[in-house]
């Protein structure tokens, strides 16, 4: 079960990064956070369950820096969502200081030979139920044990509290422009996410303190049951992101009047209703303008004829944030950008066929001129849009000039 949860977490994290990182850079931090949680969980499986010398040697101390990355990427994710800006700042480099500290302390073991690591791993496994096995595992370096098992969790908890402070400040001061009404659920997601993180990280810390402060090293014998429970947290949150994909796209902002139209901290029911109505109208107008600009760009520049044309390039052409554009297609048009792009390609292909180009070139060539990378994708998209294949459409157009 433990191994399954670890691998599932790593696999879903990879999917999250692959399918969402291009549309919203903030999900890179979220994906890395889940990835570190999966690797951390797998590390504990390898150490305390696998009984494999090779696996133990591979993760023993070597992966100790992974949990030290969890706190920073959690903070960067929350900040990037609330500020609607995923870019790193120069001063963000200091978040790597704990990692550098760990590498400095662990360097004697990290730079040792593979044969030596396997030897230590063998001693670790044989002494797993011995009170002195931590000394074996960390070459007598007690501080290294504290960094790996205690300090890393305390640091993550500190980052969770820091992130909660960012959320509190965001809600109290209404920083930035107003967010889309339908994206307010992202705030609730962040609250639930931080609460779950506090519960599970605090559970880790209390358990580790019991072991180190009270010297109950045999408490690791019960660690497996606790680990099963603690592993459910990150995996449950990760599954939630796939069940509610809207939370992956941050808090896209609607253009607002900078002259002081912020929502008042204390408003009557009528003022709140009027403010909400105004924002809904603003959002609707903004989304309609995105649609008009998107269609005008496709009509004038025909970027869809480039087989590699994608959403990120379209956002650059329109000078609209890519996650705004993604939000428009998902919430307003109820279709993917791929379907939208293919509709324009099919429209272009139909125009070429009706102009008689099918008598001068093959249908495959017409599809490629319209932006389709190959014959199969052209045929599939054309049939989905028109209900018939390109060949049938060509015959019908020839018989009905």
Mean pLDDT: 79
| Overall number of strands | 0
- Can you count the helices? 17
N-to-C SSE string, H for helix and E for strand: HHHHHHHHHHHHHHHHH
Task: Report the span from N to C terminus.
Answer: 66 Å
List the uncertain runs.
257-267
**Largest sheet properties:** none
Mind telling me which CATH architecture of the largest domain this is? Up-down Bundle
Draw up the topology in text.
Elements: H1 2-20, H2 26-48, H3 53-59, H4 66-83, H5 97-110, H6 114-126, H7 133-137, H8 142-173, H9 185-213, H10 223-243, H11 269-301, H12 311-318, H13 322-333, H14 337-354, H15 363-369, H16 375-386, H17 390-399
Helix pairs in contact: 1-2, 1-10, 2-4, 2-10, 3-6, 4-8, 8-9, 9-10, 14-15, 14-16
Give me some keywords for this one:
401 residues, mainly alpha, Rhopdopsin 7-helix transmembrane proteins, Arc Repressor Mutant, subunit A, 3 domains
Q: How is this structure best described in words?
A:
This protein starts with a helix and ends with a helix. Helix 1 (2-20) runs antiparallel to helix 2, helix 2 packs antiparallel against helix 10 and helix 14 packs across helix 15. 70% of the residues lie in helices and 0% in strands. The chain has 401 residues and is mostly helical. Mean pLDDT is 79; it is low at 257-267. The chain has helices at residues 2-20, 26-48, 53-59, 66-83, 97-110, 114-126, 133-137, 142-173, 185-213, 223-243, 269-301, 311-318, 322-333, 337-354, 363-369, 375-386, 390-399. The chain is built from 17 helices and no strands. The chain folds into three domains: 2-249, Up-down Bundle (Rhopdopsin 7-helix transmembrane proteins), CATH 1.20.1070; 257-334, no CATH class; 341-401, Orthogonal Bundle (Arc Repressor Mutant, subunit A), CATH 1.10.10.
